[in-house]
Hints:
Layout: E1 5-8, H1 21-33, H2 38-53, H3 63-81, E2 84-85, H4 91-94, E3 105-106, H5 113-139, E4 143-148, H6 154-160, E5 167-172, H7 173-176, H8 183-193, E6 200-204, H9 207-216, E7 220-224, E8 240-242
Parallel strand pairs: 1-4, 1-6, 4-5, 6-7, 7-8
Antiparallel strand pairs: 2-3
Helix pairs in contact: 1-5, 2-3, 3-5
Amino acid sequence: MKIKAILFDFGGTLDSDGTDWFTRLYKAVTERVGYIEPDEFQRYADKAACDICLLDDTPRLSMDGIVHRLCEHIHTLMNGKNACVTNPSCRACRNRDNLQCQQSVETSNSWSVQEVAEEFLAESRKFIERNHLVLRKLQERFRLGCISNNWGNTAGWCRQFRLDQFFETMIDSTVVCAVKPDQRIFQAAMDEMKLPPQACAYVGDRYDCDVLGARGAGLTPVWITDGRSGNDNDLSFLPRRIRQLSDLLDVDWE
């Protein structure tokens, strides 16, 4: 069936070229404090993301408000652990069996929430503004929409960045009570657009929830990836891959 609609993830897709939020935040923090185990930072970030779900005003926050709140919670969790950051230039730090390295530094108060959040948001705005032109051109050929695992804010963020002028539907996981890769979140968008899955493509940066989720729901998945994903060599399924949103203008959908 001919593709009639293209649906987009938000974070990592519309505001970046395939780099997810936590990877970007990890880079910003480690540039300021030194090396942190990626899995350790991911645990802080995951808990922070869950914690802010419990706050009543979270669904009403702008993207700026969410990014600042997320950074605040990550900072608090890191400081609460009184964690150490290993020095990547130190041999003892690189030896996981050596627990006596004296060249570690405490992370407490060693990075600015305001600085990291504002840097993140400035970068996001540049990508979103650049992608306006792409979405405008795509709108001439396709119906467009957005599906995001979010805190209830997706439609508000689309309005904040004037993306709502392009999208017929703006689906949020918190609002529909289904989280990608759950097929129900994709179905919610298709129900609103009154289209079958075979007529829809979905563009996202996460292989696990975006690519496999879209595929499971019957949509044509398009993976926007910065090339650093561990799934790059997964030969069990090879979706269409792009490096930036403008690549969609050259895709042969037949």
